[in-house]
Amino acid sequence: MDINRFVNLTSRAWAVPILSQLHLGIAGRQAPLLAATGASRTAFAQSVSHLISLSLLERNPGHGHPLRPEFRLTPLGIKAAALANKIQGVTTKADQETLRLSWTLPVLTTLYHAQHFNQIKCHLNPVSDRALSKMLILLGDKNWVRRSVDDTARPPRSQYRVVNKGRNICYTIAPHISFA
């Protein structure tokens, strides 16, 4: 999966948890998925529509009621669901809220190797300076990312690297993402 598709996938808060639950074999209907993920109906509906638009999910033809459709993974969705399940597997319930934020997973993925701010921004083309800065501060506060300053460079430059739980998440995702 390329980084732009991954950024698009993670732009909806419940997309990764829904894919993970489908990978685990939870029925592709609204009620079981709502119970398994804990998403609200509105957020769930938006995330499912988003996954359908990305061709990761499709309505299961001939199954379900028109008002209560059943969904299934597409071939591309099966691969994405396996990755989503790996992500969910290395985190705890307490981490889920942070993982559902739009830029958490893409930022962690780009930090497979230590990076400067502009290098991260270059990999995540649509991210604004403010959004990236806020995400790096949040991940630093959670002790998932560590910032170090190179005082020998002029002007001094900050470098970011993943640590602790951030490293576990990054090393789970990064081998599956291409930065073309």
Q: What would your notes on this structure say?
A:
Strand 1 and strand 2 form a beta hairpin. The model has no long low-confidence stretch (mean pLDDT 88). The chain contains ten helices and five strands; from the N terminus they run ααααββαααβααββα. The chain folds into two domains: 89 residues, Winged helix-like DNA-binding domain superfamily/Winged helix DNA-binding domain (Arc Repressor Mutant, subunit A, Orthogonal Bundle), CATH 1.10.10; 91 residues, Winged helix-like DNA-binding domain superfamily/Winged helix DNA-binding domain (Arc Repressor Mutant, subunit A), CATH 1.10.10.10. With 180 residues, it is α+β, with helices and mostly antiparallel strands. The longest helix is centred in the middle third of the chain and has 15 residues. The strands form two sheets. A three-stranded antiparallel β-sheet has the order 3-5-4. It has a two-stranded antiparallel sheet with strand order 1-2. Helix 2 crosses helix 5.
